[in-house]
Amino acid sequence: MNVRRNAAALAAIGVLAAAAPAVAAGPSPSPKVSVPSGLYGKSDPTYDGVWRQSLALTALHTLGYRPAAGAVDWLTGQQCANGAFAAFRADPAKACDAKTTVDTNSTAAAVQALHAVGGHDAAVTKAVGWLKSAQNTDGGWGYNPGSPSDANSTSVVIGALAATGADPAHVEKSGKSPYDALAGWSIPCDQDGGGALAYQPDKKGRLAANADATAAGVLGALGKGFVAEEGKPPAQDACAGTGHPTPAQVADNGGAYLSAAVAGSGHLTSTLPGAENQPDYGNTADTVVALAADGRTEPAKKAYAWLEKHAGPWATQTGPAAYAQLILAAHAVGAQPGDFGGTSLVTSLAALGPAPVVAGHTENRTKAADGGSHAGVWWSVGICLVAGIGIGFLLSTRKKQRS
Length: 403
What we know:
Layout: H1 7-19, H2 49-62, E1 65-66, H3 69-76, E2 85-86, E3 102-103, H4 104-117, H5 121-133, H6 151-163, H7 178-185, H8 211-221, H9 247-262, E4 269-270, E5 278-279, H10 281-293, H11 297-310, H12 312-318, H13 320-333, H14 345-350, E6 357-358, H15 363-369, H16 375-389
Antiparallel strand pairs: 1-6, 2-3, 4-5
């Protein structure tokens, strides 16, 4: 999902490549930028605010917490009159104007978050309507309306549609659904990178395996969004099938490719021009969710265990989107985000924004989510510490990828 992720994550890769400290300070805003009180993260809110806020709210809700009203209000306040959301706003406090470039990824992420927290049906309906209007004739979506379709954007929109109860198979343009688009990016088993998905064809129509697009595509083919749990084991471990693959085949073949990709080291590797290959934390977290959803429990847990040992500094450096991804990965494999290698992902995320509250009807769920029967007590203690000491103190280490 790195095509649509935050700029802070990309910057973090360069910092961590040199030498990541055991505990790093979170990204700081520009001296000229004021960070809204309802926003998660301390980095410049003009870029990626919607994305990181949506992931944070979704992750907290998944664990049974009710996000603070101010946090939800900040997100709803970013919606443009046409229903869409934007990755970049020169001034997030002002209404969208003709220069605001809206995008499918931010909009689909906001849909998933606002639908999860509830109470914003009108905003969600308007956003979904805009997404449908931006569908391309191949059945997929590009990052911006009118741009060529890609696997990542198409998959995150599928997640938004499915989350709101729509059947993506019935959302068509020129007779094509998003599943047709995904099938077109699935690399045949007898070719290099067989089973993987390409981000999109190159100028000559060739497909190149892309792990990021594959993780997104597996979830999209399964009709899943950011939140997924362990699915049924796939029919076969290896890539199989010929011709135009079904959504299930796209998912299973993509899962087979990802399983092989993490089999050795337990993680994906990112390659940046001019830089040495290095662990790809964020896409590894996404791969955990994709593998779990495809029923590949063993490789999913192996990759999660690697994240638990290594992803702390990356999450600390990157901020709320990273902590949210790790929480969603933990949820997918049934792990305890309250004990992520000795760190509470929940407390670390909450320290970066307005404190959520425990929803009374999900008390038992939140106890399990934060790591034990005394989770409610330690949550209260954590919030008091945050209020008394300030957000500059983060509790631990571990990594993630670029985003």
